[in-house]
């Protein structure tokens, strides 16, 4: 790079960070720095991660620097796409050039807070692109895996972990949907003792190049302070352990030991919950074979015995729920989990409560109903059970995840009205096939279950949970406006976002972060108003 080019690039960056409105072609040119130029700049930049945010700094900054420099040093964050996603794209894209799969690169990571206090100083870590469809966007989410455990900006009560995530929020123009969902989850599930990820917005630099606003949050994993269940010791094959599970449309990417299918009472039809008794409709968990969703075992397990144990247990739990709701019968499991036995010693509700942590399911249902996530029938729905000596042996629903398509961002419950989570929902790819999440639908029409939902909703509403969520949206949209402006200068403005065609009309009409945040808040207020009119006791 010539000296003249360097000064022009630096001058453009300074103008942008000062909040000046550059002409669109100048902003575009400032983003077209080659990998060679990036490597050269990174060698001549100080280790202060705040250097590229010299004007209007309002967020913490995470600075990532690859140990290896050179013309392709940035490719680990610009090129990879999850292999199963790339294969799907290739199936409809002629002459598609298959990108590399996400791969780890050795890096050093530094973190400063909003006041420039250095919190993490050049810690060794491996960093890679993570996620599913979000890996196909220009701005990609990242996973940081530190060599030694680190506290990250005081999240999760300051607990130290090796694994932290950076969510790109590329298709959420407000950049606040996951942030809002995690805050709500913390107040709804967290206050009941269940795990919900903590989060904070940050700005990121990579090899000295400004990389935009991200949401730093937690890896969904078995760990103290995260999903707290009995971890599996290396080479241990017994079944008295904890199992962390995901209801997952990508289960087929896992090895057979870490995945299985649920029978769902022979794919028996369910009645959707729409407030009108289902309106004569029914839904099958498989959507007549169109919804291929299995279970991914997120825990490390070591034996087929462990695999079969959890597979039998999950199938039996669902059958007990189904029998209670649709046949008004109570069943219990045999000790070997191979047989269900009808009993008159328990009511159907008691039979469910014997194997399901019902409070966690109700909390998770309320959060799902609040957020109206477009992927609810497909993935990112977590559960766990602990058969260890201190475990309850009940299926527990926690660790809610992935809300960038929720809160009216996609055309799902776009007006904030109507029942959603236990209802028939449309396929996220726009094929308008009718899908459902059977775990949220199977009990939802039971009067006793609705009574528990209403009691819990009233507690949540009366505690001021939603007012605090509205306040957070307004506060962070205002406080972080300079950072959001920098982000959209980096990644083109909102009107040029290539994810725009995925969004509903209201979300797609937003032209800046402030409008998007206002839309999010208005949608949530409408949603809360509707649910409160139905559930408040």
Which short descriptors sum up this protein?
single chain; 537 residues; alpha+beta; 7-stranded mixed beta barrel; 5-stranded antiparallel beta sheet; 16 helices; 16 strands
Your description of this structure?
It is a single chain. The chain has 537 residues and is an alpha+beta fold. Helices cover 33% and strands 17% of the residues. The strands form 4 sheets. Strands 1-2-3-4-5-7-6 form a 7-stranded mixed β-barrel. A 5-stranded antiparallel sheet has the order 9-10-8-13-14. β11 and β12 form a beta hairpin. α8 runs antiparallel to α9 (348-355), α10 (358-371) crosses α12 (447-462) and α13 (465-479) packs antiparallel against α16. Residues 1-50 have low confidence and may be disordered.
Short synopsis of the structure:
The chain is of the alpha+beta class and 537 residues long. It has helices at residues 3-17, 24-31, 35-43, 75-78, 83-92, 177-188, 264-267, 304-326, 348-355, 358-371, 438-441, 447-462, 465-479, 481-490, 505-508, 513-535, and strands at 61-66, 105-112, 118-129, 142-151, 160-167, 199-206, 209-218, 242-248, 259-260, 294-297, 331-333, 340-342, 381-386, 396-397, 425-426, 434-435.
């Amino acid at each position: 790079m010539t000296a003249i080019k360097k000064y022009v690039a630096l001058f453009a960056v300074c103008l942008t960070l000062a909040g000046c409105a550059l002409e669109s072609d100048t902003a575009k040119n400032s983003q077209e720095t080659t990998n060679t130029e990036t490597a050269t700049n990174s060698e001549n930049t100080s280790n202060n991660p705040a250097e590229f945010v010299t004007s209007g700094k309002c967020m913490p900054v995470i600075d990532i620097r690859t140990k290896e420099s050179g013309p392709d040093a940035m490719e680990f964050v610009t090129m990879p796409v999850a292999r199963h996603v790339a294969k799907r794209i290739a199936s409809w894209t002629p002459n598609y050039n298959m990108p590399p799969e996400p791969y780890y690169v050795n890096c050093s990571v530094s973190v400063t807070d909003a006041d420039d206090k250095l919190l993490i100083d050049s810690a060794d870590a491996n960093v890679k692109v993570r996620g599913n469809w979000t890996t196909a966007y220009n701005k990609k989410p990242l996973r940081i895996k530190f060599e030694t455990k680190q506290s990250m900006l005081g999240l999760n009560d300051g607990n130290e972990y090796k694994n932290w995530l950076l969510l790109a929020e590329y298709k959420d123009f407000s950049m606040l949907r996951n942030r809002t969902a995690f805050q709500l989850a913390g107040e709804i599930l967290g206050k009941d003792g269940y795990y919900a990820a903590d989060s904070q917005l940050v700005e990121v630099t990579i090899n000295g190049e400004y990389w935009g606003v991200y949401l730093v949050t937690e890896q969904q994993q078995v760990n103290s302070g995260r999903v707290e269940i009995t971890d599996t010791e290396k080479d241990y094959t017994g079944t008295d352990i904890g199992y962390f599970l995901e209801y997952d449309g990508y289960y087929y990417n896992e090895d057979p030991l870490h995945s299985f299918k649920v029978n769902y009472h022979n794919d028996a039809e369910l009645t959707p919950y729409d407030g009108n008794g289902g309106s004569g409709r029914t839904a099958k968990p498989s959507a007549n074979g169109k919804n291929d969703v299995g279970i991914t075992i997120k825990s490390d397990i070591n034996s087929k015995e462990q695999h079969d144990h959890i597979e039998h247990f999950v199938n039996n739990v669902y059958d007990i729920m189904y029998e209670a709701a649709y046949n008004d019968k109570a069943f219990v499991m045999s000790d070997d989990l191979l047989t269900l036995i009808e009993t008159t010693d328990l009511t159907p509700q008691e039979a469910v409560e014997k194997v399901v942590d019902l409070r966690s399911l109700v909390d998770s249902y309320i959060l799902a109903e609040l957020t109206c996530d477009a992927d609810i029938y497909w993935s990112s729905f977590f559960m766990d059970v602990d058969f260890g000596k201190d475990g309850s042996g009940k299926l527990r629903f926690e660790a809610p995840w992935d809300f960038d398509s929720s809160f009216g961002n996609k055309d799902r419950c776009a007006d904030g009205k109507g029942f959603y989570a236990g209802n028939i929902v449309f396929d996220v790819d726009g094929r308008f096939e009718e899908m459902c999440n059977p775990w949220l639908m199977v009990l939802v029409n039971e009067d006793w279950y609705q009574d528990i939902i209403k009691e819990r909703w009233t507690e949540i509403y009366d505690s001021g949970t939603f007012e605090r969520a509205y306040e957070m949206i307004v506060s962070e949209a205002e406080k972080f406006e300079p950072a959001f402006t920098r982000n959209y200068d980096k990644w083109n403005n909102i009107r040029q976002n290539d994810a725009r065609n995925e969004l509903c009309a209201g979300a797609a009409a937003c032209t800046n972060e402030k409008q998007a945040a206002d839309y999010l808040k208005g949608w949530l207020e409408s949603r809360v108003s509707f649910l409160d009119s139905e559930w408040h006791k």
